[in-house]
TrEMBL record:
Taxonomic lineage: Bacteria, Bacillati, Actinomycetota, Actinomycetes, Kitasatosporales
Gene Ontology molecular function terms on file: cadmium ion sensor activity; DNA binding; DNA-binding transcription factor activity; lead ion binding
CDD domains the UniProt entry points to: HTH_ARSR
Keyword Transcription: yes
Top-level taxon in the UniProt lineage: Bacteria
Protein keywords: Cadmium, DNA-binding, Metal-binding, Transcription, Transcription regulation
GO terms classed as biological process: regulation of gene expression; response to cadmium ion; response to lead ion
Subunit record text: Homodimer.
Entry keyword annotation includes DNA-binding: yes
Domain HTH arsR-type intervals: 3-100
Annotated protein name in UniProt: HTH-type transcriptional regulator CmtR
Entries under SUPFAM superfamilies matching the protein: Winged helix' DNA-binding domain (SSF46785)
């Protein structure tokens, strides 16, 4: 069982990962199915370098993992419960007030 301090750290790490729209898009895409970096970059219409930086952040946060597949590696959510958590969080935020914006929305901080 986690302590309150550990719970806070885990939630803060998750929040930092979600603070960037590209990382949110990556997580939501991986919620649907695992993907290779080239396919993710194309789907999200971002450079592979930029994607790589965001994937490194999400790996460091413990939210995604790489799975070797021959010479390639694909990415997937570290735990299937993350997909459910993303769905629940999205539904909860929309239920509260979908039209609000965060005053710190322009800050770009990684884990």
């Amino acid at each position: 069982m986690l302590t309150l301090a550990a719970d806070i750290e885990v939630l803060a790490r998750f929040g930092r990962a979600l603070a960037d729209p590209i990382r949110c898009r990556i997580l939501l895409t991986l919620r649907e199915a695992p993907a290779y970096p080239a396919d993710l970059a194309e789907a999200l219409q971002i450079s592979r370098t930029r994607l790589s930086n965001h994937l490194a952040c999400l790996r460091d946060c413990g939210l995604v993992v790489t799975v070797p597949d021959g010479r390639r590696s694909r990415y997937e959510l570290a735990d299937e419960r993350l997909g459910h958590a993303l769905d629940d969080l999205r539904a909860a935020v929309v239920a509260v007030d979908a039209d609000r914006t965060c005053p710190d929305a322009d800050e770009k901080e990684c884990c």
